[in-house]
Amino acid sequence: MNFRLLVFDWDGTLMDSEARIVACMRSALADVGCPPQPDGAIRNIIGLGLTEAIAELLPGEPEGTRVQVGACYRERFLSREREPSPMFDGAWETLNHLVDAGYLLAVATGKSRRGLERELQSTGLKSLFHATRCADEAFSKPHPEMLEQIMDQLGARPAQTLMIGDTEYDMQMAANAGARGLGVTFGVHPPERLLRHRALHCVESLPEIPGWLQQVQAGAAVGL
Hints:
- By secondary structure, this protein is α/β, with parallel strands linked by helices.
- It has 10 helices and 6 strands.
- A 6-stranded parallel β-sheet has the order 3-2-1-4-5-6, sandwiched between helices.
């Protein structure tokens, strides 16, 4: 495992946005008059593209209703009136460390391009990433298209690519693209779900990632 390209999920991996996503989806459902959904059901769809997430959450609702929910959700999530979500501890330092170590960094996210660009600008992280893909530019996770496009753009082979995320959708996308996955335990899916979907290992904080990579690259294969 000689990784060259590290692809990060955004929500639940780099940014602690779970509470905001749940609150905005609850509000969108109320706006459209849909029955309320348990917070756990909403958390479970985090990581999917918005269209796919709402279809999973509201399988019995007509398409027109789901489209309305999506529009209300976007309006609420992108509202400037809400406080921005914080980055997880150590995100800035970890990403800079990895860039300095010579890795290519990318983002593959269920966010829209508009949403991701706003977060990249507000956090000051945009310059650290060599490529980004969003769910409105490719098929939603766990389809491998986002990861395949990033690998093609940056000239990385699947064996050189590590997907880092907090959901089984991230791990499934990595497997579907022939790449490997590293789970984080502080997002929406518990470690057992990540490991069940072929995560190599799960870390409990972002600052653990450089050390784990050093061990793996040296042949220790921690967590396998």
